[in-house]
Amino acid sequence: MNITEITRLTKIAQKHVTDIVNLAIEHDSKKRMLVIFDTDTDLSTILSGAYKQAFVDATFIDFNAVEKEVVLDAFAGLAEQDLVVLVQSGDFRLNEFRIRLHLFERGIKVIDHRHLARNDESAHETYIEALSYDPEWYRGVGHAIKDKLAKTERLEIFCGEQKLIVEGGLEQPKPNLGDYRELKNVGGTFPIGEVFTEAKDLVKVNGSLMIYAFADVNFNIEMREPFRIDITDGLVTGWGENTPQAFVDVIEKIKTNERAIMREIGFGMNRAITRENYLKDITAFERILGLHVSLGEKHTVYKKEGIRAKKTRYHVDLFLDVTEVLADEGVLFKAGEYKI
């Protein structure tokens, strides 16, 4: 990427990271701000440059230019309500030190941009635009979706002629909306934009879905022509003739260790991420406006009888070619829009 393009994207990113810090995180400018970054990729260079331009009083440490002890000492000097920003082409390693969890335990706020190297140049502008923070959209519409799902007993997901029915109610929905006012930990992985839940009773999930994308074994996105999968009592029991072998391989891999069971039901809200302009990293891509579900027993947010969280291995995201969603017969999502 040439310097002109990096400069242009850095300017856009500067506005978005400023809004994240001030509006989402609600950082007190009297508190300290520490940015740990690398410049291994153009995207990490753009983001770290944006933070440098927006927050000139912050402390910046190039992770690759110092010994790990320097980073640890910097963390040790922080106090509750200080802010740490992580700009990572991969995932910073400090031996067994789990950075974000450690900081949260100390009451420190965290903004985490990770696995940036998974997004190639074609996805850089999409990633940056996906950082845009609209409080009215996320805190208004997002909480309305959460409140609606919390009361829903029957969810119907339509993918054209195919329909999946979830009966017996949904688990308490969890928001990833950049609203931390009532949460213990402030911050998380960005981009944001999702409300997720799952069936209270995993076997009360039946029907068929159309899938246009799924995560491969390297956490990358496989974009395909929509194909059908069939679910009976929560388990994948069949698929259409045009189902790619790569997906069948994923199912077989799951079944070597556990069940190909549907767990997470995610309602993505990030309007910058689309099927045409998508992110290559699955963690960020799942914020896409629309629905996704997960296969495999791993979903540590909700405890289910008979599933031992420490023994689970697979959480494979599938993205639905959804046309409409009914929550207790009321339209929740239709033609690419939430009806709240």
Q: Can you describe this structure?
A:
The chain is an alpha+beta fold. 26% of the residues lie in helices and 29% in strands. It is built from eight helices and 18 strands. The strands form two sheets. Strands 5, 6, 7, 9, 10, 11, 12, 13, 14, 15, 16, 17 and 18 form a 13-stranded antiparallel beta sheet that branches. A hairpin with a 2-residue loop joins strand 5 (154-159) and strand 6. Helix 1 (3-24) crosses helix 2. It is globular, with a radius of gyration of 20 Å. 43% of the residues are buried.
What is the alpha-carbon Rg in Å? Answer: 20 Å
Q: Biggest sheet, in brief?
A: 13 strands, antiparallel
Give the averaged pLDDT, no decimals.
95
Structural class: alpha+beta
Terminal-residue CA separation: 41 Å
Number of strands: 18
Shape: globular
Count of discrete alpha- or pi-helical segments spanning 4 or more residues: 8
Content of β-strand: 25-35%
SSE sequence, one letter per element: HEHEHEHEHHEEEEEEEEHEHEEEEE
The residue ranges in which pLDDT falls below 50 over 5 or more consecutive positions are none
Helical amount among residues, as a percent range?
25-40%
Write the layout of secondary structure elements.
Layout: H1 3-24, E1 33-37, H2 42-54, E2 59-62, H3 68-76, E3 83-87, H4 99-105, E4 109-113, H5 124-129, H6 135-151, E5 154-159, E6 162-167, E7 174-176, E8 187-189, E9 194-198, E10 205-215, E11 221-232, E12 235-239, H7 245-255, E13 262-268, H8 282-285, E14 290-295, E15 316-320, E16 324-327, E17 330-334, E18 337-338
Parallel strand pairs: 1-2, 1-3, 3-4, 4-8
Antiparallel strand pairs: 5-6, 5-16, 6-10, 7-9, 9-13, 10-11, 10-15, 11-12, 13-14, 14-15, 16-17, 17-18
